[in-house]
């Protein structure tokens, strides 16, 4: 059914949370784009048929020969199948339509209304597909931007299990976004803070008192390199580590700070 592929894509976008993002669904995006191209082709064909019908003064002969396919790509429907057979037309035959100007005009109007209805349906579906594609990618871009700010605009700190879920274009977007904001930050610092630097990722809390903190691993992070060597952060384990080494993992929810009693 028209629009189903776009609906599935939006459902995936709803599963994006602050600490989880599904893998980029390239196949589903391709299906939505393919359907959208098909709809645009159908709209152009319908408009061309409508212009032909109107330019001929409503006799409908050329319009019949170029009658469009249905949305599922089946063969074109004949006027008898689309508008009913002779019995459905009150007993009039094809010859009756052609010889009776009043009936021919009514039939022409019906064709025009049918074409307008189809083109409107296709156009509404096309616009909906476009909005769904934009919403899907916008939601993923929001996640990437939030993640980068949590990681102090350092794309290299993005966990591997999360990085593999991003498309190559999204990974490039993350690098360029971080580079652009870092350049802007540096320019502002040069103008406003000659002897100091700004932490644009600070959340406004009081500065930490302890250099080392105790943390609990909420999600498996694998091995990380700290100032004191390699540490394996397995889910459920607890560690006493330098705050600067693991603060970004706390921010994105992979570690939990165990506050002293």
Account of the protein in words:
This protein folds into 3 domains: 142 residues, no CATH class; 38 residues, no CATH class; 46 residues, 3-Layer(aba) Sandwich (Ribosomal Protein L9, domain 1), CATH 3.40.5.60. 56% of the residues lie in helices and 9% in strands. The protein has 9 helices and 5 strands; from the N terminus they run ααααααααββββαβ. β2 and β3 form a beta hairpin. The longest helix has 50 residues. It is elongated. About 15% of the residues have low confidence.
Binned, the helix content reads 55-70%
- What percent of residues are in strands? 5-15%
Structural class: mainly alpha
Strand order of the largest sheet: 4-1-5
Helical stretch tally:
9
Distance linking N and C termini: 59 Å
How many strands in all?
A: 5
Q: Which tags fit this structure?
A:
single chain; 261 residues; mainly alpha; Ribosomal Protein L9, domain 1; three-stranded antiparallel sheet; two-stranded antiparallel ribbon; 9% strand; elongated
């Amino acid at each position: 059914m028209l629009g189903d592929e776009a609906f599935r894509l939006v459902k995936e976008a709803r599963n994006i949370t602050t600490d989880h993002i599904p893998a980029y669904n390239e196949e589903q995006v391709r299906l939505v784009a393919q359907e959208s191209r098909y709809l645009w082709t159908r709209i152009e064909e319908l408009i061309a048929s409508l212009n032909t019908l109107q330019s001929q003064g409503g006799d409908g002969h050329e319009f019949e020969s170029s009658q469009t396919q249905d949305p599922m790509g089946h063969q074109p429907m004949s006027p008898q199948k689309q508008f009913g057979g002779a019995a459905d037309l009150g007993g009039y035959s094809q010859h009756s339509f052609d010889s009776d100007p009043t009936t021919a005009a009514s039939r022409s109007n019906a064709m025009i209304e049918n074409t307008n209805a189809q083109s409107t349906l296709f156009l509404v579906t096309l616009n909906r597909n476009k909005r769904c594609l934009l919403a899907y990618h916008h939601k993923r871009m929001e996640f990437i931007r939030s993640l980068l700010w949590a990681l102090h605009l350092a794309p290299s700190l993005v966990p591997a299990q999360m990085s593999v879920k991003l498309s190559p274009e999204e990974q490039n977007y993350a690098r360029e976004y971080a580079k652009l904001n870092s350049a802007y930050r540096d320019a502002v610092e040069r103008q406003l803070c000659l002897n100091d630097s700004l932490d644009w990722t600070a959340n406004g809390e009081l500065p930490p008192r302890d250099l080392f903190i105790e943390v609990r691993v909420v999600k498996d992070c694998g091995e990380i390199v700290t100032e004191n060597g390699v540490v394996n952060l397995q889910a459920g384990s607890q560690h006493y580590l330098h705050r600067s080494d693991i603060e970004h993992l706390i921010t994105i929810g992979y570690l939990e700070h165990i506050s002293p009693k």
